[in-house]
Structure formats: C-alpha cells, structure tokens
Amino acid sequence: GTRLAPKEKLDIPVLFMPDTMKIHEAVVVIHVMRENGENWPYEDSAELTKDLKSVTLGETGGLQEILWIYPVHGITEAVQQKLVSAVICCQARQRVERRVEVPLTGVVPGATSTPARRKSTKVIESSPANIQDKIKDTDGLSTTVEFMYELQYPSNEIKSQLESLVDMRLIEREHDTESGIATLIFKTVFAPTKPMRNEATLIVQCTTGGVWKFPMLFIAMEPEVDDVINIEAVGLNKESLIDFKLTSQT
C-alpha cells in the first residue's frame, strides 16, 4: 500500500487507451486502513453502517477500513485530422439550404478504425423539394444506434451572432459495410442578416460511445443593392433636393 501523512494528497494516474469507438466504464476504489492495523474507534459504528456502505467494521468494534469509490467513464474521441471546413456561403438578407455529409469511423460494433475515404465534410447544394424530412436507415445500420449533435462556437460573441441564423437537422444516415463508415446527412439552413465570417464546430456523439468533431465556416457576403437614388440637376450652381423614405427591417 501507499503510506499517507495526515492531510496528504494522493494522486492516482488513470490511463485510457480505447481501441473501439464506444463508452468504457470503470471504478476506482481506494481502501484506507491505519498503518498499525488497529481499528478507528467509533461508538455508534453499528448505526453508521446502515446509511454508509463505504466502511468496514472490525470484529472487535470500530472501523477497520474506509472506502472511496469513484466511477470513471471513458469517452472515445476520434483522432483529429486536418479537415477542410464545410463552407456555407450566402448573401446577407438571403436564405440558403445545404446538405452536409459527415463521415463517422467506427460507429458499428466490430468496425475497425479504417481511415475514412473522405477527409472532410461535404456540402451538396440542393433545393427544398429534394430535402427528406425524416432519418432514412440504409445498408443495415442498426436503428438502435442514435446520435446527438450540436454546434459549438469559439466564443459567446460568435454564438450570439450565429445561433439564431443557423439551423441543422439530421435527415438521413448511410452505412458503408465495406469500410465500416457511417455517414450522417444534415439539412443546414443559413439565413444571415448582415455580412459576417464566423467559424463553428459540429460535435457528433453516438449513444454507444464515441465523439467526432468537424469544423464549419459560415460566410455572409454583402447584400444586393436595395435601390438606386437618382437626383436630377436643375442647373449649374443650383441646389437640387429629393425626398425618400427609409424603412427599418428590424
């Protein structure tokens, strides 16, 4: 065992080396006993064990040992490769819909960490009529495998700018049985109100374990000109006036 002085701290290294994309669970149990082998005196030790299960009573009374139990959950995260950001581009005050394909390696039980054929997310232009409204199960991917996803932003300022302008929904998923790669297809809507260029990260987590991260870039270009104001001159060195109304869109 390890000898500890009064109020001394104990560091316990935990090594996690997963070989599959799933959740791993373990328990760290720490047993504490007196160095001389004697029990800690405690008058109501019998009453103590009714509510506290982390102590062991000695045969002659008192506390023989104390236990600390810490659950450990290991969540596997995909190796970060140099991915090309999925770019969603649109003019300000316009609205665009895109299909974003995200490849996930090692989702299906038994699949190996075969390198993905695609090294980045893929954006496909599509019209609203071609968008499917529900998740489609293809190529035998188990329907019990579910995914959670969210967009994370570099700062609260960027989050306040993008959160209300971007909508992502999982509409379809596919499975390549040869490579063991699952592909999630998202319907992404971007409706910017002003020019901007902001980054975000799509975080995908499988209920059976595993986390994947994909960079995204949202670009809003300058909007089209609303109108042209023509002012006709009435003559040299004479002032020309024109009246026009401006209406705020917010």
UniProtKB/TrEMBL annotation:
GO CC terms of this entry: cilium
UniProt superkingdom: Eukaryota
Sequence ranges assigned to domain CFAP47-like immunoglobulin-like in this UniProt record: 78-220
GO BP annotation list: sperm axoneme assembly
One Pfam family recorded for the sequence: Ig_CFAP47
Signal peptide: none
Protein's name in the database: CFA47 protein
Species of the source: Eubucco bourcierii (red-headed barbet)
